[in-house]
Write a structure and sequence with these properties.
This protein is an all-alpha fold and 133 residues long. It contains five helices and no strands. The chain is globular, with a radius of gyration of 16 Å.
Length: 133
């Protein structure tokens, strides 16, 4: 997204505080690199980055759907698979598997890439367009 991003992390560890610290360190390092490259200073991410532990599979499915629908709802693309900067195309096997955790998602939530794509497209219709971004 031009103004923000979503990052869903699946961890086999129960150490949520350390995962949060690691992500904060990643974002801080990224900010420092951008600031150095473009001779700027200050915060790059506003407001404060949010992190939430998700333990319910139904909520994970909602989050995955929300993340992938963002560009569509913002009218940046006409189809979920048109957004180049998300894992959606990898998850539905339109491009080679990259670092998206395809196996983890499908093994616990979906039977196949086709089921994931069908679910994602059905979820678009669940929210009325007047509530889109």
């Amino acid at each position: 997204m031009p103004t923000h991003f979503h990052f869903l992390v699946h961890s086999k560890s129960d150490d949520a505080p350390n995962i949060r610290k690691s992500i904060a360190l990643l974002l801080s390092s990224y900010t420092k690199a951008i600031n150095k490259r473009f001779h700027r200073h200050g915060s790059l991410f506003q407001p404060r980055t949010k992190a939430k532990e998700i333990t319910d599979n139904a909520y994970v499915m909602t989050i995955i759907s929300y993340i992938h629908q963002n560009p569509l709802r913002a009218k940046l693309v006409n189809h979920l698979e048109d957004w180049q900067h998300s894992s959606f195309r990898s998850l539905i096997q339109m491009r080679r598997k990259e670092w998206a955790a395809q196996d983890n998602i499908f093994s616990s939530l979906f039977d196949s890439a086709e089921d994931f794509k069908k679910f994602s497209e059905e979820m678009i219709e669940c929210v009325r367009k007047e509530f889109w971004i």
